[in-house]
Design goal:
Elements lengths: L2 H18 L3 H17 L1 H8 L5 H11 L5 H12 L6 H15 L2 E8 L5 H15 L2 E8 L7 E5 L2 E4 L2 H11 L1
Helix pairs in contact: 1-2, 1-5, 1-6, 2-5, 2-6, 4-5
Organism: Leptotrichia buccalis (strain ATCC 14201 / DSM 1135 / JCM 12969 / NCTC 10249 / C-1013-b)
Family: Belongs to the ATPase delta chain family.
Subcellular location: Cell inner membrane; Membrane
Length: 175
């Protein structure tokens, strides 16, 4: 079975568990923290992926590392580690979020601009997108000075590139 399919199944199961225990938001946050630790800490990865280390030792490490979380959230983390699916944590988290957004009629949008947006600009962008897509927009704004001006919107698989850098590239192609 492909990793993508495995991640979908785990995300679905985790989402159902989180939903039944009314802890979707907490599990979502814990999955984010788990992914960040996995990606950023070599020591964290070594401890949890060591095939010679018994699960009971890994379990104690997790309990110490995630002592601020609920029993359900900690159980989710332990399950992922026990089933040796930690390397799929990014995909699992992404599919979990996708289920969450679909169920709550939300649409994640990544907006990339040359400079930070004002609060008024953010509100106007969110209002326009909510009207167009008829969903609650979850806006993630990033700043990339290389795009010179304008902006890029990433909405699902759709990319709307209105950056000046892109327009310059298009002009170059035509010459």
């Amino acid at each position: 079975m492909a990793n993508d399919e495995i991640a979908k199944r785990y995300a679905g199961a985790i989402y159902n568990i989180a939903k039944s225990s009314d802890s979707v938001n907490e599990v979502r946050e814990v999955l984010n923290i788990l992914m960040e630790n996995y990606e950023e800490s070599e020591e964290f990865r070594k401890i949890l992926e060591d095939p010679l280390k018994k699960f009971s030792k890994k379990e104690k490490f997790l309990e110490k590392s995630f002592n601020h979380t609920s029993k359900e959230s900690l159980g989710v983390i332990k399950y992922i580690v026990k089933k040796q699916r930690l390397s799929l944590i990014g995909e699992i988290k992404d599919y979990f979020l996708k289920l969450y957004y679909e169920e709550n009629n939300k649409l994640p949008v990544t907006a990339i601009f040359a400079k930070e947006l004002s609060e008024k600009q953010r509100e106007q962008l969110v209002q326009k997108l909510e009207k167009k897509y008829n969903k609650k927009i979850v806006l993630n704004v990033k700043v990339d000075k290389e795009i010179i001006g304008g902006g890029i919107l990433k909405i699902g698989n759709e990319v709307i590139n209105g950056s000046i850098k892109n327009q310059i590239e298009e002009i170059k192609k035509n010459f």
